[in-house]
Amino acid sequence: MKAIFFILFLFVAVCGCKGEKQPQKNEDNKVVDSVNYEVVQQNEVTVLNDDGVVEEVVSEDVVIKVWKKYLESEYCDVVTDNKELALSLIDKKSPSVASLELDGANHPKVREQSPSSDNDEDEEDFFDEDFEPTVIETFACYPLDAGGYIVLWYNDASDWGRKVFAVFKFDGSVLTRLKNAFPPFESDFIDKNPSFDWDKLVKLSGSEVLYFMQDCWIGGFYNNGFTVSLGGMEETFYEFNGKDFIKGK
Known about the structure:
Elements: H1 2-18, E1 24-25, E2 31-33, E3 38-40, E4 44-48, E5 54-59, H2 62-71, H3 83-88, E6 91-94, E7 97-102, H4 120-130, E8 135-143, E9 149-157, E10 162-170, E11 175-177, H5 196-202, E12 209-211, E13 216-222, E14 225-230, E15 234-240, E16 245-247
Antiparallel strand pairs: 1-2, 2-3, 4-5, 6-7, 7-8, 8-9, 9-10, 10-11, 10-12, 13-14, 14-15, 15-16
């Protein structure tokens, strides 16, 4: 008798498991939670903070869309006839941050594999002989509470002492460079007398860009802001609150 009851128990348990509602895909390729009837876009990434709380939701390909618009825009200083090649070389660091490495003439830089060698000294000499200064252009996107994105652009050509910063707005289809829309930078960060040759190189002008001093640079871009390093000794954090960047304490 006990064996019969045990078999019946297993049968009910298995049927119950089969009857649980599971997430499904609908025809629009969206994931549908059939328990709560919530639709989750597959092309969005939810970013959690250290406490597991939702920090932001970022479109997974927003930074690539920004790069596409930039390569087609009047602001672009990337020298190439092959935009698809440039896009393929973009280093996507996160859903909202991506960089492109350029050579000294602002052409997208294609990494070549070094010749194999069993001698470490030979490899080191190879890289020293072929080394050339590079430029790194980075876009970082931050969702606005009112919709769209504030987009930061950073041109790091440290080998020439040129580090340029600009702010854009992106509504999903149009990329616009903003005037006088910079975070509250310390005055010690800013080069007030930049070379005019730099303007010609990167197609920049006046109140739409800032140049950092020689010993100042962007330390890193993060989900909720970015840091500026001064002399490599200290960093200032600028946090984005959905509307503006606020200098951290």
